[in-house]
Amino acid sequence: MVPVNNKISIEKCIISFSHNKYSSRKEADALSITKAEREIADGKNGISHLILRAENDDIDQLKFLFLIRGIPIMCYALGNLLNSSLREIVVVGSGEVKKVMDRFLDIVGTCGKTIQFVLEDTQHLNLVNTMNLGRELLAPSKDELVLFQPGDLPFLYDLEKVLHLPDNKKYNIVLWLNARQKMFPDFKKNPASEFVKRNYHYRTLSDHEDGLLDLKEPNLYPINFSMMDSDIIDNLHSSRKDGQIIYAGIQTALQKPLRLLKVLPCFIDHLLTFRSKVNRFRSGDQYQFGMSRNNFNKGASHLLNTPITTMVHDDPAFVSDVDALEDWEDFESLTHYAEKIHGPEGGLESIHPFGKSLARFREEGMPELQTEIHMYRDFPSYLNSIYETLKMGYVPFDRDNQYILPNAESKEVELVYHWYQQRCERLQQNTRSENQQQC
Question: pTM, whole model, 2 decimals?
């Protein structure tokens, strides 16, 4: 492998507000319903009625356009980037995404960032093509990582630990893994503390091999594009869900037999030791893929022929994406609760560092967008119809367009509110302290 000497700080980002489309609404709905029914039957921790696009939709069912407390999800995600130390941002999305973005930036400004937009290629709605569209505009150098992230992470606002990670210097891919035990250390004693419900298909050992970690695939990808084969990125990403990554690894290995020889020692050690180590902590544990982080990092680096590492974080916002209606409910309930306590203007500001600007955009920008984007003309009725189609058994809004789900007043939502309030306050204090030191 070629030695790596990257810049530590990441200054460029591609954010994707694009997603694949199914051939028909009937097919997309059937997939969403079937997946949720299977999860319910299996007693899974996270139940997901997926929000999916279809070719024949009258209204593009694009999750990034969905409103959380009257504000598009994409605006929360874009606000996170504006509030960071990034310098250049490329947005990939649909024509409607551009309308929202332009109106948003007109009102809240760019915070000194260079922001460019590229229209999604509806004939090639895959990860590699989306990355390449953004990459062409950013023109990254050979010694820098670019942050790639999907735009459905509305409260992932603590990005600096990713952008300035010292290990960025030594690796061409950094996978920020979501570990249940790190994010929710008390979930066994206090199940309510696990306020983001997800299914964890992977296993690894803790750093000192003194514990077992339940893992979910990463949502953040700092990548050195010049050192990566695009087909490998797409293969690994498209198969990362539901424990299918092992098959992607095998497929990649078969295509690169010389690399396979370098991987064999890691694979043999894995076969001989990993299951026995897992049984020490959880005998008979069922999982779809598991490997020690040390073996995975070495094996993946040899397989991809470039240095790769994994980071395990403790921030639930990293795993809290909006793939499903249940995920949307979590954030609608959170913001509803915050505004109940602080009012429409102060609610978002109490739990999101960009909350004041988001609330301003809702007041100044959304009235115009409601006349331009069909989804926004009557969003409560639109969303209620999706709930009915996916056989949810309830709807989130009443006839007066008021949010009526009972979990909005639950103890769990109160816990989530306090968690984000404390995190937001801590970040704002750190920012003020840094600004004072610079002055």
Answer: 0.92
